[in-house]
Task: inverse folding
């Protein structure tokens, strides 16, 4: 009896305390393949073994390494598979093969990444984001500090899988200045401008990195090489908040120096810019780790609040789980059991504070048929779980309806009812800043109001800024198109849908171009009805086109699409 | 696991299912034996390579689990005696344990580190007896030692773990 008890205690202790040892899901397959002579089974090496091997190799001679690099795996496996897919995502089997290849070559992706979570749950994953994760694992989480070659190569891979139309990340050629010349020029410019003594290459005090990239030319709606621009950054390491950057053209002309204390810089940023910076480094916010959310919370803690969303983010109290909290993986498991969601499930988890209580905020995005695809999710579940006890405090479904605030995915539910109102801040894109009044709200065509989204710039301003196909239609055309859009919303979402939306504004983009099918000229309309022009967090979007030689009207409308404006927020 | 046969019908156990069923247990045992995560992973791989190669010759003379664990313990033994091992820092501290994926108690960690600090000959007997649930006879067969050797090592190992293997009120 005593023996059985002791065994049970022993076994439980080992299984619990060593539960973090990760089994290799590909081991059997690897061994079978290896035994059949298809691959070599690679032995992992400890740091000590590596050191010994390195010493021996140095003493003897260099040895050719037969393993594939992450770049080779992307080029030889990830991209060809993506190119042969009609979908934008790898299937589970694709992903399994890819991960196996990575594993066989000694490359391990972060177990906590969204990609690996999707895989563990038996799902595939987006091709672009998968390649992205491999590259971030290989080159560093922050894309900004990748070398020019790495960035350019990454752009080529994105182009190859169709994720990018063009590769904006360039390598200098011909008469264009070289990397070393660019860095030297940046050092000189900053010394002249600020008296700064900066190194031309990264050292223990400074991190130096750069991009050489194509810039958009609004007049022609293109990215000509003549517009290529260098930016060289100098970022102080180890707690320093000082940073510099210099931009200049491809021949080193028109240098513009900039100095910023990072914290001051943050204070001058809006929330969107902070998010952009973090997303550049860590991927979209649905991929962020608990650490990144906590960092985000710190960065915006002193930000001047200008909108409801900013207020919500700032008051969410993003933090790391306190000592003694259940793990994120356990919380996710509790959430899975709670909702019982099935199919393809994308999950993200945040730790924040709700009524002085640390909670896990979990969002499950579900495709019921098990296939990951674009567009709206079939279900979006938001859960709040006590960090310490694992108790499920609240579960709500986000339903893409105007009465649902998409912020419920990212902040405690309790905050949503207490958010104060903020006066809408006009966007700085328009020098004639003016807040749209209720009376003007339906006159996007003729108003001078502005907003963060280009939809809410007057059509004249759009045409002036963007040129190309962006033109100003007649008032009559606009009114008819507006009526068509409203009718479409009423038809799909109900006659009172717009009225229910409340104090909404109407934004629109209009282009005249040629039909792909017939080559005939056509008008293309894209309307946005929302109370939140900055983030498009509510309301509706209506798109359609009709031949230019016909008047806008229901009978001639083609490709009419009506959807929620906040489609991307899920 | 339907393809995994018992000792008397073990002619064709499915290799993939064997790996799925026993990999975790082998990995944890190898870790406790070798006190190094990467070496343990190597040992697991090596173990299952041997299992794969030996499956045809396995005729159910013992249970399949006993057979696999015997291979694992011998693999660990071989690695422990290899030249590489002499280069390693062998101090055992709780910090060298991998992060746990589920909640654990403080004394779980105390027990694990105490086991890892045991002399290797005591450790292997303790692992086979307590973790793998082997009988004295199975340990004798696995290690090729006499009954008195096994029981003697088991007693000494148990003495060193005294207090850590007792059930407490919270376990009830």
Result:
């Amino acid at each position: 009896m005593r023996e059985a008890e002791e065994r049970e205690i022993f076994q439980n202790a080992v299984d619990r305390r060593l539960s973090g040892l990760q089994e290799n899901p590909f081991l059997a397959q690897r061994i079978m393949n290896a035994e059949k002579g298809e691959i070599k089974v690679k032995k992992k090496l400890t740091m000590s073994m590596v050191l010994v091997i390195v010493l021996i190799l140095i003493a003897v001679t260099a040895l050719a390494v037969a393993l594939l690099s992450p770049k080779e795996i992307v080029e030889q496996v990830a991209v060809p598979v993506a190119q042969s897919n009609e979908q934008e995502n790898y299937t589970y089997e694709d992903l399994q093969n890819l991960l196996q290849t990575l594993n066989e070559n000694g490359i391990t992706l972060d177990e906590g990444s969204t990609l690996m979570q999707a895989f563990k749950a038996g799902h595939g994953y987006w091709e672009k984001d998968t390649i992205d994760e491999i590259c971030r694992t290989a080159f560093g989480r922050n894309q900004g500090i990748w070398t020019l070659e790495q960035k350019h190569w990454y752009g080529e891979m994105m182009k190859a899988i169709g994720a990018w139309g063009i590769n904006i990340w360039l390598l200098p050629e011909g008469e264009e200045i070289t990397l070393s010349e660019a860095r030297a020029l940046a050092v000189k410019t900053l010394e002249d401008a600020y008296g700064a003594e900066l190194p031309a290459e990264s050292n223990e005090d400074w991190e130096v990195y750069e991009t050489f990239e194509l810039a958009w030319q609004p007049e022609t709606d293109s990215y000509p090489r003549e517009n290529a621009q260098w930016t060289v950054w100098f970022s102080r390491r180890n707690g320093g908040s000082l940073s510099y950057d210099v931009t200049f053209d491809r021949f080193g002309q028109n240098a513009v120096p900039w100095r910023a204390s990072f914290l001051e810089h943050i204070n001058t940023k809006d929330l969107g810019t902070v998010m952009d910076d973090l997303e550049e480094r860590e991927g979209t916010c649905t991929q962020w780790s608990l650490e990144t959310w906590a960092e985000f919370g710190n960065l915006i803690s002193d930000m001047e609040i200008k909108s409801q969303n900013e207020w919500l983010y700032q008051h969410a109290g993003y933090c790391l789980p306190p000592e003694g909290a259940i793990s994120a993986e356990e919380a996710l498991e509790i959430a899975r059991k709670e909702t019982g969601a099935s199919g393809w499930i994308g999950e993200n988890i945040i730790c924040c504070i709700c009524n002085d209580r640390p909670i896990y905020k979990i969002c499950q995005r579900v495709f019921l048929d098990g296939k990951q695809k674009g567009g709206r999710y079939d279900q979006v579940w938001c859960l709040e779980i006590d960090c310490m006890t694992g108790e499920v405090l609240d579960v709500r479904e986000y339903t893409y309806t105007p009465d649902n605030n998409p912020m419920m995915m990212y902040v405690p539910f309790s905050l949503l009812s207490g958010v104060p109102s903020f006066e809408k801040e006009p966007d700085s894109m328009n020098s004639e800043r003016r807040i749209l009044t209720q009376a003007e709200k339906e006159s996007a065509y003729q108003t001078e109001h502005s907003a963060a989204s280009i939809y809410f710039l007057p059509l004249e301003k759009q045409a002036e800024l963007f040129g190309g196909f962006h033109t100003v239609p007649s008032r009559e055309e606009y009114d008819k198109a507006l009526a068509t859009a409203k009718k479409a919303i009423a038809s799909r979402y109900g006659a009172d849908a717009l009225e229910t939306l409340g104090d909404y504004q109407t934004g629109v983009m209009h282009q005249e171009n040629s039909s792909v099918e017939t080559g005939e000229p056509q008008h293309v309309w894209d309307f946005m009805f929302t109370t939140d022009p900055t983030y498009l967090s509510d309301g509706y979007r209506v798109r359609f086109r009709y031949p230019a030689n016909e008047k806008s009207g229901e009978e001639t409308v083609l490709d009419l699409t009506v959807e929620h404006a906040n489609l991307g927020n899920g | 696991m339907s393809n995994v046969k018992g000792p008397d019908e073990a002619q064709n156990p499915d290799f993939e299912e064997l790996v799925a069923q026993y990999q975790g247990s082998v990995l944890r045992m190898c870790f406790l034996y070798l006190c190094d995560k990467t070496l343990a992973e190597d040992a697991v791989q090596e173990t299952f390579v041997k299992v794969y190669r030996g499956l045809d010759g396995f005729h159910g003379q013992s249970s399949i689990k006993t057979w696999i664990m015997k291979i694992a313990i011998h693999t660990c033994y071989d690695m422990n005696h290899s030249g590489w091992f002499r280069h390693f820092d062998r101090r055992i501290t709780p910090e060298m344990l991998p992060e746990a994926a589920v909640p654990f108690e403080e004394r779980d960690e105390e027990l694990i580190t105490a086991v890892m600090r045991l002399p290797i000959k005591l450790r292997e007997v303790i692992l086979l007896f307590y973790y793998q649930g082997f009988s004295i006879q199975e340990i004798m067969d696995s290690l090729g030692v006499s009954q008195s050797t096994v029981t003697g090592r088991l007693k000494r190992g148990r003495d060193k773990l005294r207090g850590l293997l007792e059930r407490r009120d919270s376990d009830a």
Summary: Chain B touches chain A through 51 residues (CB under 8 Å).
